[in-house]
Structures are given as structure tokens and as C-alpha cells.
Fold these 2 entries.
Entry 1:
Amino acid sequence: MNEMQVKLLKEVEEEVTHLLSDLIHINTTNPPGNETEATKYLAEHLSKEGFKCELYESAPGRGSVITRLKGTGEKPSLLLLSHLDVVVANAEEWSVDPFSGVVKDGFVWGRGALDMKGMTAIEVMTMKLLKRNNVKLKGDVLLAATADEEQDGLAGADYLLRNYPQKIFADYVLNEGGGLAIPTQSKNVYTVQTAEKGILWFKVKAKGTPGHGSMPDVADNAIMRMNKVVDKLGNYRSQILLVPTVKQFLNGLAGEDASLQQFFSRLLANPALSDQVLDELAKTAKPLAEEIRPRIRMTITPTIIHGGVKENVIPSECEAVFDCRILPGQNTTETLQLIKNLLKDIDAEKLTFEEIQKNEPSESLTETPLYDVIKSVLEEFEPNCGVTPMLMTGGTDSRFFRKMGSVCYGFQPMRPDKPYDEIVKREHGIDERISVENLVFGTSVLYEVVKRFMS
Ligand SMILES: [Zn+2]
């Protein structure tokens, strides 16, 4: 290893910190989003360094920005992707103004610091360094900071891919979702998001026959019918499915932590015993056990229920909404059919189904040159570290790109600066913040990865 090649880019500390503060200061709470203001800021910021930026609005105020560094075409293209919108923040709950972007105690504070303006700042800094250092690129490197990820991405990444694929499509994509290291017994294990679950949100309507509340046997109570539906779906435990990402994740953690080895080797050898094994693991490592449970099966969660109009009227209608999450390899059409089959004993003719939203699951495998580069760069920055792929239970814009054939990894390199479960909670949470140290670390690793992969 050449010591000169791998180093923390301390000299960008002020620049990247300032950039993130400015981005947080532009309130892009979605809804309404108002991302255009942030895209204008970024376009101006980048134009000062000679970048040509293109702005695209899917609707007034809903802007995304794209820029590109041309390569020779000898290598595939790489997109550095981020979203500019953030979720709502209730200022009264915070210890600082969530849109101040204040820097104190070694952290940049504010909504979006982790999800994901911190990554936007790191990616912009990486682009600037590639240009400044005149890195000879063998493939195009693109940057896109987009609108609307926190709703469903339809007015951001999906809009751009549908309308301007030649502007935004790339063979490889680096995005949010992974990168944070899990501290294990012996070492940090860095995660790379290689897969995400799909979403099937659906509504079930149960019909009945109305009647007087004093005469329950004469009517057909829709609430009682829905009660059976909720009971059946809410308690359903689908078969265990270990997708490649999750197998590698469990194997990876087991290899780094002897105390986990006994649990995960049993689970991997006999997936049917998963529930039993995770119950045992939960006695000593509850947060980890609960992280794994939803990653090995499809889940169905009742989230909304409505029924009844008056104290003494037996309702003829009751409806409930379910949040179903499926694994790569499963699909929303077959899943809805499976759900209907589960309910066929509950007077099927009195139930109707309505899809609210569906996103298919997606997965990129680890057998790629980009994954290899990520692994070797991390091992140079932190000689003893582990690297593992991981599956996210939520969704990101990566799903749109995977559908088009891109290899996508969620990778915002971060060292754990608090216990793992606390860091994860800070995303979308109160007092969201990222350490200045992690901004420098993230920029240094990302720049090295891009430089090495593209040259
Ligand atoms: Zn996000």
C-alpha cells in the first residue's frame, strides 16, 4: 500500500462543512419540497469551479440538478446520486434550529445532515476534487441531486429517468442507504446497501349488513369481519427467504464476531429455525435480532383502520390499510394474490382490495469491480475493517436505477461516532447531525473510490 495514496483530506474540512451548512439552511421539507432553491445554490456553487449544470423541474419549485465530468469512454459511467428534500422537523423538539446548519461540538446540526444533504456535500466535494486535481477519467462521472425522494421519488429521480434518461442514466450508481460501519466485538464492519425491500400498500374493505346496535345477531357487523382480516394478516408469518445480500451479511458479521457465530451459523444452516435462533439472540442482543427479523421474510403490518358511524349503528363497512414489505425475488402481483388466498375463508365475496402504492424490491450483487474497489479502499483507510452488503427494509431512489439495469450501491462512508442503534435513530429524528470528522472521512473515501474506479 502506498501511504501517499490513501489519506484523510483534512484540507477540505472547512469547505465541505460550509457546503453542508448552506444546504441545510435551505428549507426543502417535503411536502412541498421547494428543492429548486437548493439546485440553484448548487448550480452556482459548481459553476464557480467551471462545471456546467442543468436544472430540471418536474413542477414549479420541484427542481433537480445534474452535472457531468466527461471520461474517455473506456470505462462504464458512474452516477453520484443524492436527494435534496428532507422530512419535516418540529423545531420545538430540537435543541437547535433544525434549519440553522449550525456547527458545534464537532457536528453539523440540522434536518438532512444524515438524510441526505451530508452525502450531497460529500459528492459535490468529490466532483470538485476530481476536476481540481485533473484526474484522467476513463468513464463519465455524473452528479445528480434530485427532488422528492421522501415522498416517492416520482417528481425527482423517476421523473428524470423517464424523461431525460440520456442525461441521468449511468451503469453504476452510488447513493444513500449504507456506508455506516457497524461496530462489532473486534472491528468496524462497513455496510454497503445492495438491496432494498419492495412496498405493497393496500386497503381492504369489509362489507356487512347494517343494523341496530341493540340487536347484534340480526345484522352482519363489518367490524367483526375486519377483525378476522387484521388478525389473520397481522399475525401472518411468511416463509423465510434468505436473499444473497442477507446471507452475505450474516456470514460477514459471524466472521467478525465470535459471539454471533453460533447464532448465525445455525440460522444459515437451517433457515426454518430462524425465529427460534433470533429469539435466543434477542436475550443478549435485542437491537440486532430485531434488525434481522424483517430482513428474512415478507412482512404485513396493519397501519390504519376505519369503521362505524354512530354508537348504536352496526356498521356495514369497515376498511383497513396494510403496509406489506417484500424481499428481492418476490413481486407485488403474486404477493397480493397470496394475501387474497390467505383471506379466502373470511367470506371473500364481502372483501374488496385496493392497491395504494407498490414498488418492486431490488438487489445489486456484490460481484462487480466497483464493490471490489469500495472494499479495498476501505481496507486501506482502516486496515482491519470488515465490509458487508446489506438489505434495507425501506426504499430509496436506487430502485428506479436498478430497474433500468444499473448496479446501485448505498454507500455514504461513516465511522460510528455513537452506538449503532443511536446513529440509525438520528436519521429522520430529533437533533439530526453528522460529525465534521465523518464529512472529511466520507469525502476522502468517496473521492478515492471514484478516482480508482474511473482511472
Ligand atoms: Zn434519504
Note: The chain has a mean pLDDT of 95.
Entry 2:
Amino acid sequence: MAEMGIYEAMRTLKAVRRLKPDLIPDDVLHRVLEAATWAPTGGNQQPWRIIAVKDREKKTRLGAWYSERWSAFSKLYRSALSADMADDARKRMTRTLDAGDYLAQHFGETPVIAIFCFNPKQMAITDAKQNRPSVVGGGSVYPSVENLLIACRAEGLGCVLTTLLCEVEPQVKELLAIPEGWGTAAAIPIGYPVGRGHGPLIRRPVSELAYLDSWGRRLA
Ligand SMILES: Cc1cc2nc3c(=O)[nH]c(=O)nc-3n(C[C@H](O)[C@H](O)[C@H](O)COP(=O)(O)O)c2cc1C
């Protein structure tokens, strides 16, 4: 079984969008799916399920829908690439969009597409009445997604959390026989990376994102 330091795994868990079609051994797939089950959920209800899609025809359909949604989405991003953007930021965004194009072209060829489903009736959504979009329900799904991503990292598998297929949820539900009352939260294409795969991240420093005692007050 793959073992690596948890901090090393988190520090290098990049979105990997160039994935090989090579098969993932069943025991490896089982381990990364099991890692998802260890995540916390409200009241320990585990109101989520994963459909690990390996069927070629189903993946082709998912790939076609993903590609269609990506093409609309990426157009907006490409048009936001402006000349007055800092050079390295523009290069970074162009690289990400190129990798996104690659994923869109090959989405259906990845060996496994993990579709995360959730059931809101099994969730205590404590912020449902606030005058803003509710996020608490997602807290009983996305920690499982993150566990799966970290486990993939440890196994040397590339992966990326995607949500564009949520825009065509009714079609996805029909294709995968997802029952009434369940929704879709994410689609994770998983495969061995084409290139270097995971690596160092670009993130804002903790001093900008975490405060001490009140909003905006810097940590020591
Ligand atoms: C909620 C959420 C939705 C995302 N949806 C997509 C998606 O549909 N397609 C995609 O290519 N990446 C998607 N991503 C991946 C992000 O673009 C990526 O995590 C972010 O740009 C950081 O990239 P990095 O980890 O390589 O630095 C999503 C990430 C999150 C957290």
C-alpha cells in the first residue's frame, strides 16, 4: 500500500488534468474509495455515495457532456486573459486552460470517473435559513471528496475535482440510474498522470487567510 507523509500529500495535491487511459488496479481503486468513507459527516450519516464509472460507453457520454460544458466555461476564462494581466499570471492561466482543454478532450477516456452523489434529506443543514446560499450541506460531502483526492495523491494517481457535470445533472442521473432525492456534487476523473502530475502548489500564505481572535487580526 502507498504511504506518504500527510503534509507532503496535501502540499503537493495539484489539479492533474492530463491523465493516461491505463487501467487502475482494483486494489488501488478500492483503497482510494475506502479513504472517502473515513471522512466526517454531519451526525455520521454519510449522506453520499460514489459511482465509480468504468463502463466505456457511459464514460464516453459523460466525456461528451463535460466537453460541451467546458467549452462554454473556458471561453469566458480565455476572454478574461488580458494584455494588462501580469505576465506570469497570464502564463499560469493559459497553462491551466490548456490542461483543461486536454481534460475535456480526454475526459471519457480516463480509466475511472468517480461521481459523488448526495442526499440532502439525510443532512442537518444548519445554515439553510440564512439569507445567503447555503454551504453546510456540502460539508457532509466534500471532505469525502478531499479524502479520495489525498488518497489518489498517495497512490501516484492524478485526479481533479470537477463540478461542470452538475450543470447537466438530470442527464447524469438518468445515465447512472441515480434515484430520486439524490443529487450530484462532483465528478473526479482519476488516472495515472501523463507528465509529472502532482507538485508544489501556488496558494496564498496562511498569514492572509487565518486570523487570530477576530476578523483581520494577524496570527503571531
Ligand atoms: C468546487 C470546485 C469545482 C471545480 N470544478 C472544476 C471543473 O469543473 N473543471 C476543472 O478542470 N477544475 C475544477 N476545479 C479545480 C480547480 O480549478 C483547482 O482545484 C484550482 O484551480 C487549484 O488548482 P491547483 O490545485 O492545480 O493549484 C474545481 C475545484 C473546486 C474546489
Note: DSSP finds seven helices and four strands in the chain.
